[in-house]
Design brief:
12 helices, alpha/beta, 37% helix, single chain
């Protein structure tokens, strides 16, 4: 039976049209074929597994590298549904009560999307839990983390294949915004993907503008630029945690609504600052590269690098 994907899109997300290759990708994974997606940030990658998961019977397992990214996506999906249990995160940050709720919703068949970190998927207790449910497919987000040749390699991603095997082989969709041909081949081989359908979107982003400025009076220049664009969302990246703290403080003194974000902040504070940025309670995040992967905020207008990025 063919699915009316336009109807599903309108029903679940309120959109009338798909972007680029989205429809073909959704048909590929829904048709049970392994699928490899390379699509630039902002191209709508997450829709490529969220919509087929919502339309399928069973639960899609989404492997994602960052707790912040998972929380961001789960909050967004719940915002489109009356059922909170439709999407869950399964990771080390959950309390016993939250964990019990996830288990209950999974067994009851309420959960369509379960986001897990690779470390969580590889835990024996979680594998035993997931053996009790019907899995629709596996989505590997930020799939370049699988490859030793990728820029953000995570060793735990290499062993996902064994966990998937233990749970019974289902279709796999791997998605990334960044993969050289060598990285693509490594991901396909490591995941044991079976002649996947490959979708490569153009990386040309006509709405992006790059500028390099001489680094003379950088604090003054940044304050001036942000002051001229008061109320607009921006991210300022710095190499050190100390510089993040100092600059955020300086921006606030100059009337700019800014918050710091780095791995040295306690977890609750990091979540609070990220949520403030996403919910428009803060205009500017000053951060190390601990911030940003997969943050879904459509109105970021500037990304400034205080230091030369690594």
């Amino acid at each position: 039976m063919s699915t009316n994907w336009e109807h599903q899109l309108k029903h679940h997300f309120g959109f009338s049209d798909f972007k680029g290759n989205q429809r073909s990708i959704i048909e590929s994974i829904s048709g049970g074929r392994d699928t490899f997606v390379i699509m630039p940030t902002g191209g709508g990658k997450s829709m490529c597994y969220q919509l087929p998961a919502l339309a399928a019977s069973g639960t899609a397992i989404v492997v994602s590298p960052l707790i912040a990214l998972m929380k961001n996506q789960v909050d967004a999906i719940r915002g489109h549904s009356e059922v909170d249990g439709i999407a869950h995160v399964l990771n080390s940050s959950l309390t016993k009560k939250e964990l019990d709720q996830v288990h209950e919703d999974l067994i009851a068949g309420k959960t369509k999307l379960l986001y897990v970190a690779p470390e969580s998927l590889n835990k024996n207790s979680n594998i035993e839990l997931l053996k009790q449910i019907t899995i629709s497919f596996f989505a590997i987000d930020e799939a370049h983390c699988i490859s030793e040749w990728g820029h953000d390699f995570r060793p735990d991603y290499r062993t996902i294949k064994e966990s998937i095997k233990a749970l019974g082989r289902k279709p796999i969709i791997a998605l990334t915004a960044t993969a050289t041909p060598k990285v693509q081949a490594d991901i396909i081989k490591t995941m044991g993907m079976d002649e996947p359908d490959i979708y490569l979107s153009s990386f040309n982003r006509p709405n992006l503008y790059y500028e390099v400025r001489p680094k003379r009076d950088i604090d003054h220049d940044i304050i001036k630029l942000l002051s001229q664009n008061m109320g607009k969302s921006a991210i300022v990246y710095c190499l050190s945690r100390q510089k993040v703290e100092d600059l955020a403080e300086q921006l606030v003194v100059n009337g700019i609504n800014a918050l710091p974000y780095h791995a040295g902040l306690e977890a609750a504070k990091r979540v609070k600052h990220q949520d403030a940025f996403l919910n428009e309670d803060c205009d500017v995040i000053v951060a190390t590269i601990a911030f940003g992967m997969g943050i879904d905020k459509p109105d970021v207008r500037y990304v400034l690098h205080y230091d030369m990025p690594k």
